[in-house]
Design goal:
alpha/beta; Rossmann fold; globular; Phosphorylase Kinase, domain 1
């Protein structure tokens, strides 16, 4: 068993088991905590959590060539559509104790699960709110270094652009997970990805990368853009 840095990423690792199978992982901020049944492995007294690309679109993007080191220790990040906390928990690992992760979730039931995951993680702040109305949670959030959005709404690019005007620092990045079937079930996913990219450009973003997340997540893409 061996753990080593994953490609050019400082805070993402690759775990190689006894059979030679590789899985990416993050260094556990809360040793012993399993969030979604992921495997915990220890090397040199450091615990790592394997990161499943079929459960997390960010993990899928990393495996498909995401720009390295978009997420760093100490960053302040706003996460739109945090759900029960699978991907946010790995981001929490990456930003460490000096970082801050504001997690917005609309469903009260799901948010209760998010709260449970967040309780032992001092850098995760769960907030029950509607991402379409950032003014409703503006008093709870400082300006951030990055906004990550994964929401099942037709206006996905518009929502992250709106939140960026409220919270994103100048010359900072956004990561938009595009759910094609939530935008328009009648259009080809590639057409929807381009349309969402165009909306970001209209909102003064420079699009740096577009990643189709298949086969890990069909009809999904990830767009990285800079303000």
């Amino acid at each position: 068993m061996k753990v080593k840095p994953y490609k050019n990423n400082d805070d993402v690792f690759v775990y190689i088991n006894e059979e030679g199978i590789e899985k990416i992982a993050t260094r556990s901020l809360v040793p012993g905590q399993q969030v979604y049944g992921e495997k915990l492995v220890t090397q040199d007294s450091v615990e790592y959590r394997t990161w499943e690309p079929r459960r997390s679109k960010l993990a899928a993007a990393l495996l498909k060539g995401l720009i390295p080191n978009l997420i760093k220790p100490g960053m302040k990040i706003l996460y739109l559509g945090a759900a029960s906390g699978t991907t946010p928990s790995h981001i929490s690992d990456m930003i460490g104790k000096t970082g801050r992760l504001y997690c917005i979730e609309f469903s009260p039931r799901v948010c209760r699960e998010l709260v449970t995951i967040s309780e032992p993680r001092s850098n995760m702040i769960p907030i029950l709110a509607d991402v379409r109305f950032p003014e409703s949670y503006a008093s709870l959030i400082e300006n951030v270094d990055l906004i990550y959005s994964d929401v099942a709404q037709p206006e996905q690019a518009e929502i992250i652009s709106l939140n960026s005007r409220w919270f994103l620092k100048s010359k900072s990045r956004i990561i938009l997970c595009v759910k094609a079937r939530s935008v328009d079930v009648t259009q080809k996913p590639s057409v929807i990805y381009q349309a969402q990219t165009d909306i970001l450009k209209q909102n003064s973003f420079d699009v740096e990368q577009l990643i189709d997340l298949s086969p890990y997540s069909e009809d999904h893409a990830m767009i990285i853009a800079k303000s």
